[in-house]
Design goal:
333 residues, 30% strand, disordered N terminus, binds zinc ion
């Protein structure tokens, strides 16, 4: 009897405590710091797709990397589908649906906002969304219509709610979603500002991180438009801005104490036309209750098939107190 009374009392106390804790703290095991890993362009067409078709794994050279963070994110620079017709453009990439389980072994979410996810039209894009939903691989930056494409992906982990938004601003704009057609999110300034504010105010995100597809190919430094939009996003409430598309690593900045990493470069892609394109960055952000406290990087070298391998090369890192350092220990060392 005595035991029962004590048990009853402690249950009431635990429930009362839970009610006093803000909702975002109440989810699962709370951690002081949470880490997010971002990698650049991943194309699962070509040799990577062939490797998977043959029963192999194109991620083997970087498998250790994906164990180093709580949430892992990539830009999927192709469509995954059976349907559709190739668009009239220089390069079109479509990967087989068998690639999804392999990708899902390594990443928790993908951005589909880029200049290749629409290569086989809205039907193929729509099929990809259904396949990703079936296989529970989360995505952002695209949807069955314009509203969905601009809806943040909320990931709740270790007591934090993180909103991911993806935008493409590299032509063709015809891949953009419409009110009726599936497609990507395009980065009109006003729309981006509204999305970032909604992520915090409507979706209750603790942190908002836009993953951009922008800039000019092979430019080693970010251009004026990237710098302008990054500032607009941070002014609107973004906690960090990450980018890709130029196929090379670009410079980084800090604005109002928030980091901007303009381009991660390539991660898994066959077509490379200069040596800088065969070197990409994996980026790891560390977040605590005050936002991004630090980031570090891992150089990834792409082989002749465009498959990634981690390098021992020292690489850039940053923290809020000490700022940028050029030669830090790579993530996997
Ligand atoms: Zn691109």
């Amino acid at each position: 009897m005595k035991f029962k009374t004590i048990f009853g009392l402690s249950t009431v106390l635990i429930l009362a405590q839970a009610l006093l804790i803000p909702s975002s703290y109440a989810q699962g095991k709370q951690k002081e710091t949470i880490s997010l890993l971002f990698v650049g362009d991943v194309v699962l067409d070509g040799p990577a797709g062939k490797r998977i078709e043959d029963g192999g794994d194109p991620f083997l050279g970087v498998s250790k990397l994906f164990k180093q963070a709580d949430i892992r994110i990539a830009n999927l620079e192709c469509v995954i589908a059976n349907l559709g017709e190739a668009a009239d453009k220089n390069f079109t990439f479509r990967a087989h649906p068998r690639t999804i389980p392999v990708l899902a072994k390594y990443v928790d979410a993908i951005s589909i906002a880029n200049n290749h996810s629409g290569d086989f039209g809205p039907k193929a894009f729509s099929e990809m969304l259904d396949l990703l939903n079936q296989q529970k691989l989360a995505y952002f930056g695209g949807g069955h219509n314009l509203k969905q494409a601009h809806t943040p992906l909320i990931i709740s982990k270790h007591g934090y709610r993180i909103a991911l938004l993806g935008y493409n601003e590299f032509m063709p704009r015809s891949f953009e979603a419409s009110h009726e057609l599936a497609g990507t999110a395009w980065s009109e300034d006003e729309h981006v500002i509204a999305d970032i504010k909604a992520a915090k105010q409507v979706y209750g995100a603790d942190f908002v991180i836009p993953f951009m597809h922008w800039g000019w190919e092979n430019e080693m430094k970010a251009g004026p438009r990237q710098r302008q939009l990054a500032r607009i996003m941070i002014d609107a409430g973004a906690d960090a801005v990450i980018g890709g598309h130029p196929h090379v690593i670009q410079d980084t900045e800090e604005y109002k104490g928030k980091p901007i990493i303009y381009s991660l470069g390539n991660f898994m892609i066959e077509l490379m036309d200069n040596p800088a394109q065969s070197r990409g960055w994996a980026l790891r952000l560390q977040l605590n209750r005050d936002g991004v406290s630090a980031w570090d990087t891992q150089v990834v070298n792409l082989d002749e098939l465009g498959l990634p391998h981690t390098s021992a090369e020292p690489s850039a890192c940053w923290n809020k107190q000490k700022g940028l350092k050029k030669d830090c220990r790579p993530i996997t060392q």
